[in-house]
Every structure is written in C-alpha cells, then in structure tokens.
Design a protein that fits this description.
This protein is globular. Helix 1 packs across helix 2. It contains 5 helices and 12 strands. It has a single domain, classed as PPM-type phosphatase domain (Phosphatase 2c, domain 1). 29% of the residues lie in helices and 28% in strands.
Length: 246
C-alpha cells in the first residue's frame, strides 16, 4: 500500500499557502485523511485551513479513548460514516468555540474540507465534503464545483450541526476501493495556456488516476515537477492525498 501526498503554494501567494492537508492512521485498518482550502477572499485563510487540521487531529486522538468515557462507544464497530460525522461534529463545535475565544469574525473561519475515512482491510471508503474539491475512486474522478462560492461550514455556526450536516456537507460511500484520492480545486489551476476540457481531464488523470511508479512516495512531486519544467504555472494552492492499496 502507498500513501501519496503533495502540497504546493500558488504563484499568486508569495508568503502563505491557504491549503493544508492531514493524514492519520486511526486504527490498524482505518486511515483518516483531509484536504482543506481556505477562502482566498476571506481573512488569514492559512490560519483557518491549519485550524481545521488541528481539530481533526484532536478528534483522531479522542476516538480510541471514547470507550473509557462512554461505555457503549466502540470504535471497532463504528461505520466509517459515523467516524466522519464524529470528526466533523467536533470540528463544528471547535469552530464555534474558537470564534468566541479569539473574538473572530466569520471571514476568519472559512475553509473547505474534503474528508476521507478509508478501511484498508475491507476496502470501504467514506468521503464527506463541505465546499468544493475533487475525489477519485478507482480511476473515476468526481469534481464538486460550487462556482467559486463554496458553502463553508463557517457560514452556519449559529445553527446546530444535526440541522445543517445534510445540507452543507455532501456524503459518498464506496465499496471495493483500491485507489482513492482527495484534492483541493487547485489541481484545475495548473495552467500553461488556455486549457481545453481534454487537457484538464489529462492533468487530473496524471495525479489522481495514473498508477504510481516504484518511487511511489515522490510520484506526485515528480508529476508536478515535470509539468512545471514544461511551462505549467500553479495559479492556486494545491493539496492532494492518494491511497493506492493494490
């Protein structure tokens, strides 16, 4: 099994990347991965995407210990979607608390989140997404495009998670997954000149579908460097995590 990742800063962001990514082995068989894209038109978006990552990590540390607090809580029998809901519910609560603690405005808490929970043994995967982004399952790419107006979790902090989770967060469950990727939409901003639909599809395929080489850990980096040398310029931050389990 190979876990590949890449994180690149846009040519338009000289100081900070507004993207962030996270991966963690929750149990022997379950991996938690996420990519975040802070809102470019908001404030201190690099802080927001990192904050999301810290909250997700906190939940991953909490989950194995929850049985000591709640007797009938059993991580080993939880559905992947329930694990994802736990993490996002905690994230939602953490955003509310952070807003109050640091007197933040809504525009300081806006980021997309593309969350993957993957079981390497039974090959099931759950993906939950707030905002836009892409994912690929066994070579099939799905692009969630919200016309540059993502429906961020941060817009809904005055509401309850159970009320907004089905409207604001999209969910997909998959079986028999051998190759899964999650990506921010920066993958579509890697541009050489005017880009046709065919070229866009080809670029997505290079990162999300093409089988990795034996030098798997650097495969995504090698793909990016080859494009960069060929004149492609990244016009938005990019974060990708890919698990190849074959």
């Amino acid at each position: 099994m190979k876990i590949l990742s890449i994180h690149k800063r846009s040519s338009h962001h000289p100081h900070f990347s507004e993207d962030f990514f996270y991966s963690f082995q929750l149990t022997d068989d379950i991996f938690v991965c996420a990519v975040m894209d802070g809102c470019s038109s908001a404030k201190d978006s690099q802080f927001t995407s990192v904050l999301y990552s810290k909250s997700i990590h906190k939940s991953c540390r909490m989950l194995p210990q929850m049985k000591a607090i709640i007797e009938d809580f059993d991580l080993s029998t939880m559905a992947l979607e329930d694990v994802a809901d736990f993490i996002l519910n905690q994230l939602f609560d953490d955003l509310k608390k952070t807003k109050k603690l640091f007197f933040l405005t809504t525009e300081e808490l806006l980021s997309t989140v593309n969350l993957l929970i993957y079981n390497t043994k039974d090959l099931n995967a759950c993906i939950k997404m707030s905002g836009d982004g892409l994912f690929a399952i066994n070579g099939e790419i799905t692009n969630i495009d919200q016309n540059n107006t993502p429906n961020f979790l941060g817009y809904h902090l005055s509401e309850k998670f159970d009320v907004i989770k089905d409207d604001v967060i999209q969910t997909w469950n998959f079986k028999n997954v051998n190759d899964v990727s999650i990506s921010t939409d920066g993958i579509d901003k890697l541009i050489k000149a005017t880009k046709s639909h065919e070229e866009l599809t080809k670029l997505r395929h290079l990162f999300l579908v093409q089988p990795p080489t034996e030098n798997g850990n650097l495969f995504l980096e090698d793909q990016f460097e080859a494009l960069h040398k060929n004149g492609y310029i990244l016009h938005d931050d990019l974060s990708i995590i890919r698990i190849v389990n074959k």
